[in-house]
Amino acid sequence: MSAKILLIEDKAGLLDTLKSLLELHQYTVITASNGEEGLRMAITHTPDLVISDIYMPVINGYQLLEKFRENPELSKIPVLIASAKTGEEEINNALQKGAAAYITKPFLFAHLHENIRKLLS
């Protein structure tokens, strides 16, 4: 059985590319283009892992992390933040709010996949 990953990214091109790469590695991928849609999808589909951007419309990644932490079912799901923000303050903020890992864009897919495997094991 393949792991189910929820991918939340507001840039359509990146969303499609990552979805295709993850599917090539036998993951089942559910997508959302903003945090609010991502939250709904997480509640509906209970993914094994969430990969989310920080800066996106409606609900941003920080608010998403807070909502996951408040929900007993969602709080068990690891969230990997993928963001172009490289500042130490940004990274620490995401980790303090409950992110299981943080990867900066642009990244090599191999680096992302390594993080995914660690979080799913």
Mind explaining what this structure looks like?
The protein is α/β, with parallel strands linked by helices. It has helices at residues 12-24, 35-45, 61-70, 88-96, 109-120; strands spanning 4-8, 28-32, 49-52, 79-83, 101-104. It has a 5-stranded parallel β-sheet, sandwiched between helices. β4, α4 (88-96) and β5 (101-104) form a beta-alpha-beta unit. α2 packs parallel to α3 (61-70). Keywords: Phosphoprotein. This is Response regulator. One of its GO terms (biological process) is phosphorelay signal transduction system. The modification 4-aspartylphosphate is found at residue 53.
Please write out the topology.
Blueprint: E1 4-8, H1 12-24, E2 28-32, H2 35-45, E3 49-52, H3 61-70, E4 79-83, H4 88-96, E5 101-104, H5 109-120
For the record, the count of structural domains works out to: 1
Task: List the total number of helices.
Answer: 5
Measured distance between first and last alpha carbons: 14 Å
Which structural class matches the secondary elements? alpha/beta
Mean pLDDT: 94
What is the CATH topology descriptor?
Answer: Rossmann fold
Shape: globular
Largest beta-sheet details: 5 strands, parallel
Tell me roughly what share of residues is in helical segments.
Answer: 40-55%
**Secondary-structure element order, as H and E?**
EHEHEHEHEH
In CATH, the homologous superfamily goes by the name: Response regulator
CATH class: Alpha Beta
Return residue spans where pLDDT drops below 50 for at least 5 consecutive residues: none
Supply the CATH architecture: 3-Layer(aba) Sandwich
Radius of gyration: 13 Å
The fraction of residues assigned to DSSP E strands is 15-25%
Strand arrangement, largest sheet? 2-1-3-4-5
Q: Give me the count of strands.
A: 5
Domain Response regulatory: 4-120
Keywords: Phosphoprotein
Protein name: Response regulator
Modified residues (4-aspartylphosphate): 53
